Amino acid sequence: MAVQRTFSILKPDATERNLTGAINALIEKAGLRIVAQKRIRMTREQAETFYAVHKERPFFGELVDFMISGPVVVQVLEGENAVLKYRDVMGATDPSKAADGTIRKLHAKSIGENSVHGSDAPETAAIEIAQFFSGNEIVG
Ligand code: ATP
Ligand code: MG
């Protein structure tokens, strides 16, 4: 498996509780490198575009409102098998179903306020990275 990149967001429930460092420590402990990172406040338009795949789901409005409710930290993570590795580190979407030691088990508040996002495939990772970073902001 070659070195891969994935896109990560530390969501508003995480920044609100000052968990950026604690979550980054779990990411780095898993062998992923943070090769780009910035703290931003997403616009409604950015959040709607980012989660457009969920537009028809009943929780879409709530999800967008949550993502713009406070600062987020957007990141590019790099490592062997990074997409799947980060999904493992994150744990299941619903924290009550997440495995011990995962970010969501340790920190998420609920299925909606679940602390982190990670891309679900290399193709979506490339699209998501390009939505938030230009090439010269990523330093591997
Ligand atoms: P993410 O895409 O954020 O990494 P995921 O891939 O584990 O999470 P998705 O099914 O893609 O989960 O859902 C995207 C996000 O929508 C979830 O992370 C969560 O914040 C929110 N969400 C998903 N299901 C629900 C639900 N039933 N109620 C409220 N919010 C939900
Ligand atoms: Mg998803």
TrEMBL record:
Span of domain Nucleoside diphosphate kinase-like: 3-140
Residues annotated as the enzyme's active site: H117
Subcellular location: Cytoplasm
Keywords: ATP-binding, Cytoplasm, Kinase, Magnesium, Metal-binding, Nucleotide metabolism, Nucleotide-binding, Phosphoprotein, Transferase
Swiss-Prot/TrEMBL catalytic activity: a 2'-deoxyribonucleoside 5'-diphosphate + ATP = a 2'-deoxyribonucleoside 5'-triphosphate + ADP; a ribonucleoside 5'-diphosphate + ATP = a ribonucleoside 5'-triphosphate + ADP
PANTHER family for the chain: NUCLEOSIDE DIPHOSPHATE KINASE, NUCLEOSIDE DIPHOSPHATE KINASE DDB_G0292928-RELATED
Residues noted as binding ATP in the record, renumbered to the chain: K11, F59, R87, T93, R104, N114
Biological process according to GO: CTP biosynthetic process; GTP biosynthetic process; UTP biosynthetic process
Gene Ontology molecular functions: ATP binding; metal ion binding; nucleoside diphosphate kinase activity
EC number: 2.7.4.6
Name of the protein this chain belongs to: Nucleoside diphosphate kinase
Cofactor(s) this protein cannot do without: Mg(2+)
GO CC field: cytoplasm
Family: Belongs to the NDK family.
Primary location recorded for the protein, binned into one broad class: cytoplasm
Pfam families, alphabetized: NDK (PF00334)
Broad enzyme group: transferase
Biological role stated in the UniProt entry: Major role in the synthesis of nucleoside triphosphates other than ATP. The ATP gamma phosphate is transferred to the NDP beta phosphate via a ping-pong mechanism, using a phosphorylated active-site intermediate.
NCBIfam families: PRK00668.1
Subunit field text: Homotetramer.
